[in-house]
Amino acid sequence: MGYFGRIEDKFKAQELRRQGLSYREILQTISVSKDTISKWCRDIELTQKQKLRLLENKQFGQRKGSLVAADNKRRARIARTEKIKEKARKTLGKLGNRDKFVTGIALYAAEGNKGDGKAGFSNADPKLIKFMMDWFLTFAKVPMDKMRGAIWLHEGLSEKNAKKFWSDLVSLPSNQFHKTYISKVKSDSKKVRKNIHQYGVIQIRFSDSAIHRKIMGWIYALFDDRISLIENVPL
Fold first, then answer.
1. CATH of segment(s) 97-229
2. Cα(19)–Cα(36) distance, rounded to whole angstroms?
3. Cα separation, 29 vs 21, whole angstroms
């Protein structure tokens, strides 16, 4: 099965599940394993009416306990995840400007461009991209009109939707985006990508050697334990 064929099957399976179809009914339409259908659809919650339909169906009446157990398991997993997140938020507390400043340096050290004058940060996570755009503007003092966006997108995904999403997220005008790079699907490749980013990966970049060198200086200072010596930063 081709890469996009598998992705289309996943989206189709999830849509059928939202309509209330059972896994067995979905399998009559999509030729994958039952375990695969289960993984694709495990976080989709059925309405009470849809659950009753499955329970009242003779074909699935004997599986009432399994349906209830699966639903309880899903709810428990979500509850555990939310509890962990809430505990983490309390542990971290509210971030001050200094915390955000140092966090941005660390993120840039990990994901930012290091080549002289070629400043940029790439990621697919909207929260990280929004954080770093704000960081560039607030701490690095990059003028907004110097910022540019460059999107990396898989073939078959909507370039228009991706550009609008990132543009709205970071308030970057569409005319400040470079040409989108479209990754072609190799017809002879057997690799199936598990993580599909609907809006692709974006790099927010700017051309200013002086600012870029300043950021690199912050990185060196941070890892040489001399960050406290930095002056003229809005902390």
1. 3.30.1330
2. 18
3. 11
